[in-house]
Each structure stands twice: as structure tokens, then as C-alpha cells.
Amino acid sequence: MPTSKAIANDSTPAAGLAPASYEAALQELEQLVSRLESGQLPLDQLLTAYQRGAQLLAFCRDKLSAVEHQIKVLESGELKPWEQG
User: Fold this and answer.
1) For 32, how many CA atoms within 13 A lie in the half-sphere containing its CB?
2) What is the pLDDT of residue 6?
3) What letter does residue 3 receive in the DSSP assignment?
4) What are the two backbone dihedrals, phi and then psi, of residue 80, each rounded to the nearest 5 degrees?
5) Which one of 17, 33, 38, 63 is most buried, counting C-beta atoms within 10 A?
6) For 36-67, what is each residue's pLDDT tens digit?
7) Rounded distance, CA 38 to CA 62, Å?
8) Which candidate, 4, 62, 54, 58, places its Cα nearest to that of 46?
9) Residue 19: is its pLDDT beyond 80?
10) Does the pLDDT at position 74 exceed 60?
11) Residue 42 is inside which H or E element, if any?
């Protein structure tokens, strides 16, 4: 008996899978936003896409926060302005 599962035809990775990198997450998020803004997604896919977008956004924020923390540690807690030399 055939079932029509529109999500299976979706080109985005399954929800819950962590992206390989910040850049991969950002690229997937940008593609997802374009699809959401197109207004062409059925309601069930819209909800799934929104949830995936929230996961990707959290992943990106966590990565940026971790990098910011590393910079603060490297600079002894003081962020210094970048000077071109």
C-alpha cells in the first residue's frame, strides 16, 4: 500500500541531525528560510521546517558563543579592537 510522505522528498537533512559545521548549518538555514518564505510548503512540512530552522539557529548560536568564549580566554577576558598592521 503506497503512502505519500512529502517529507521523504524533502532535500533537507532529517530533523535532529547535527550539521557538520557552522557554515553547513548556516547554508541549510538559508535554504530553509527561502523555502519557508516561498509559501509553497504544505502545513505539515511547514511545521517540520520551522522546527529544523530552530534547531539550526540554536546550533549556530552555540557555535558563535563558544568562539566568543575562546576569544575572551585568549585575550585574558578583555576583547581588544582589531588593528590592521
Assistant:
1) 23
2) 38
3) -
4) -110, 145
5) 63
6) 999 888 998 999 999 999 999 999 999 999 99
7) 28
8) 54
9) yes
10) yes
11) none
Pairwise CA distance, residues 22 & 38, whole Å: 24
Say what the pTM is.
0.68
| CATH code, residues 21-85 | 1.10.287
Where are the domains positioned within the chain? 21-85
Q: What is the mean pLDDT of residues 11-36?
A: 85
Banded model confidence at residue 1, pLDDT cuts 50, 70, 90 = very low
Q: What is the C-alpha to C-alpha distance for residues 75 and 62, in angstroms, rounded to an integer? A: 20
Residue 77 makes CB contacts below 8 A (sequence gap 6+) with none
DSSP structure string for 47-82:
HHHHHHHHHHHHHHHHHHHHHHHHHHHHTTT-----
In terms of C-beta density within 10 A (0-12 exposed, 13-18 middle, 19 or more buried), how is residue 36 classed?
middle
